[in-house]
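Notes from hallway chat w/ T.B., transcribed later so I don't forget. T.B. wanted the structure written out for a chain they're using in a teaching module, and asked if we could keep both sequence and structure tokens in one place. Agreed to drop them here.
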Amino acid sequence: MRIHLFTSAGEPGDTAHAFAEAQHPEHRWRRLLLDTPEKRAAWEAEPRHADLIISFLNPYILPAADLEATGGRAYNVHPSTPEYPGNDSPFFAAWDGRFVAGATLHRMEPRVDSGEIYDVCERPTDPTGGVVELRVVSRQLALGILLRNLRGIVEDTLVPNGQRWALANKRTRADFLEMCRIDPSIDEADLDRRLTAFYHPGNRTRPYVELHGRRFVYEPTAGR
């Protein structure tokens, strides 16, 4: 069986790939990192077919034709609970004051984060750790949920658990970018809340203000 494993670069994608190949060496695994426009264009230009697709912390939205070609055998690990479908989920959970890390294993459909759910895990985090801790723990839980369900994924024995997506909370990348744009008139309490939820030192996109055609990107100072 040909299995395409779409991941992000580095950990925990490295661990997921190594474990998958070690546990199921009878199958043909191919790891794909489509984290740049060039890689995506090259992938889309080549002929391809997979019997099974697994998307794990993968930034690339797969074409519907690729999902359909598997006959419904395409699965994703979403790094949040079903309460927060869509993009940048930990940031919006932090914005709502919901410091509960999570991971959701579900079937992939052309519409992002809409397929039936097979497994969910959650863990409360310390609010003082902000979105940084929330995101780290969510990624750890994502790896855990993939590893404990890998055999069921490969052997096609998963059973839906009956949970549903909170589609009213679904966010897009555009929503995240808008929350990073800070109005200069914002009061201090609202600014603190916004920074707690949307500032992450590892993110290329950070909160900013625009003044007179210039963009000023937030960088924390000592003690703040």
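Follow-up for T.B.: The mean pLDDT is 94. Might be a good example for the class.
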